[in-house]
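Q: what sequence does this backbone want?
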C-alpha cells in the first residue's frame, strides 16, 4: 500500500514537545476536528508531537464496557490517519501500554489533596453529568493525576486541548512545581494549554453547546453522504424563522456556525447571512449549501479512512511502533523521577 509512511527522526530541531490525546469511546466527529485534530495536523510540522489514545482514562467512566473501549482504539486511530496525523511526524500510542504512566500516577498521588481534586471544575461537571455523586469511583475522581502523568511523562511543553481541559493542565503544573520543589531537582516540566485557533466550539446539530456522542448530536468524520444529509436536514436553526419571507437570526444559528467553520467561500456565506437576516431565504436552501460544504470536507477523509479500516493489521502495526517509541521516552522520565525520589537502589 502507498498510503503509509516510514518514520524518520527529524525531532532534533523541533522545539516544543506536545502531548495530547482522546478517550477512545467511539469514532471521532467534526467537533474533534475543529477542537483539536486540525491543530495537531499543523503542529506536527514544527513540534515534537505525541498523540495518545487514552484507553486507561476511557475506562475510568466506561469500565463496564471494555469491548467498546478496545474497538474504539482502532477506530480513533483510523480517524487520526484519515485527517492527516502523520505517523512519520507524530508518535501515536496506546496509553495502557506505557507502564511508566501508572507508576508516575502513584507517586504524584502523594502531592495532591482530596480537597484539591474535589475543586477541579471539569471533574465536578463530569460527576454531575454522569450521575456519579452517590458512588464516585476513586479511579474517576483521580483521573486528573493520571492525566498529569500522561503529560509529564513526555515532558510536554504544549497541550492542545479544548477549554474544558485547562483545569487538568493547571493541576499538572501544580504537581510539577511540588515535585521539583520537594525532591529538589528540576525533573518535571510545566506545560501550557493551547486552545483551538478559532476559540469557538462546534455546537451539536441540535444547537446544544457541545457536540457529543452521548448527546446523539454529532456528525462523524466517517459519516456516509446519506447519514450526513439526514443530519444536515434535521439541523436546528432559528426556531422563529417559520416562513421563508420572515427575517431569520444568523447569530447562534448552528447552520451558519458550521458554514463559518467549514466553508471556504466566505463571500458566499456573507451573502447567505445577509439574505437570511433580511428574509426571503429558506432554511432548506442554506442547508443544501451546508451539505455541499460538509461533503466536500468529509468525503476525502471518508475515502482515506476506508483504506485504513480495511488494513487493520498495518494500522495496528503503526500504532504499536509508536507505542514502543513512546514507552522509551516515558521510561526515561520515570527513571529521573525515581532517582530524584531516592528510589534508586541499583546504581
Ligand atoms: N481528558 C482528555 C479528554 O477527555 C483526554 C486526555 C487524556 C488528554 N490524557 C490527556 C488530553 C493528556 C491531553 C493531554 O478529551
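A:
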Amino acid at each position: 500500500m502507498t498510503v503509509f509512511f516510514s518514520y524518520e527522526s527529524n525531532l532534533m530541531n523541533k522545539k516544543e514537545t506536545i502531548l495530547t490525546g482522546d478517550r477512545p469511546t467511539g469514532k471521532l466527529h467534526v467537533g474533534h476536528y475543529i477542537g483539536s485534530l486540525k491543530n495537531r495536523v499543523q503542529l506536527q510540522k514544527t513540534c515534537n508531537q505525541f498523540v495518545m489514545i487514552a484507553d486507561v482514562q476511557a475506562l475510568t467512566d466506561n469500565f463496564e464496557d471494555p469491548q467498546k473501549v478496545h474497538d474504539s482504539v482502532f477506530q480513533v486511530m483510523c480517524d487520526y490517519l484519515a485527517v492527516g496525523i502523520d505517523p512519520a511526524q507524530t508518535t501515536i500510542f496506546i496509553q495502557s501500554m506505557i507502564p511508566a504512566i501508572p507508576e508516575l500516577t502513584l507517586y504524584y498521588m502523594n502531592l495532591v489533596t482530596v480537597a484539591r481534586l474535589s475543586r477541579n471544575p471539569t471533574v465536578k461537571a463530569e460527576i454531575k453529568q454522569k450521575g456519579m455523586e452517590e458512588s464516585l469511583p476513586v479511579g474517576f475522581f483521580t483521573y486528573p493525576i493520571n492525566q498529569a502523568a500522561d503529560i509529564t511523562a513526555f515532558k510536554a511543553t504544549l497541550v492542545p486541548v479544548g477549554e474544558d481541559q485547562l483545569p487538568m493542565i493547571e493541576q499538572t503544573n501544580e504537581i510539577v512545581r511540588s515535585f521539583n520543589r520537594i525532591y529538589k531537582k528540576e525533573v518535571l516540566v510545566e506545560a501550557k494549554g493551547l486552545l483551538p485557533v478559532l476559540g469557538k466550539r462546534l455546537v451539536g446539530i441540535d444547537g446544544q453547546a457541545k457536540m457529543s456522542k452521548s448527546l446523539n448530536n454529532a456528525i462523524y468524520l466517517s459519516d456516509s453522504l446519506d447519514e450526513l444529509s439526514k443530519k444536515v436536514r434535521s439541523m436546528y436553526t432559528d426556531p422563529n424563522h417559520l416562513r421563508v419571507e420572515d427575517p431569520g437570526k444568523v447569530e447562534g444559528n448552528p447552520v451558519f456556525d458550521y458554514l463559518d467553520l467549514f466553508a471556504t467561500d466566505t463571500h458566499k456565506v456573507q451573502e447567505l447571512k445577509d439574505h437570511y437576516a433580511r428574509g426571503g431565504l429558506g432554511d432548506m436552501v442554506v442547508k443544501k449549501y451546508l451539505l455541499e460544504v460538509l461533503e466536500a470536507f468529509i468525503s476525502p477523509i471518508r475515502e482515506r479512512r476506508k483504506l485504513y479500516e480495511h488494513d487493520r493489521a498495518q494500522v495496528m502495526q503503526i500504532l504499536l511502533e509508536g507505542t514502543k517509541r513512546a514507552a522509551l521516552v516515558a521510561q526515561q522520565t520515570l527513571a529521573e523521577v525515581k532517582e530524584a525520589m531516592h528510589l534508586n537502589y541499583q546504581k
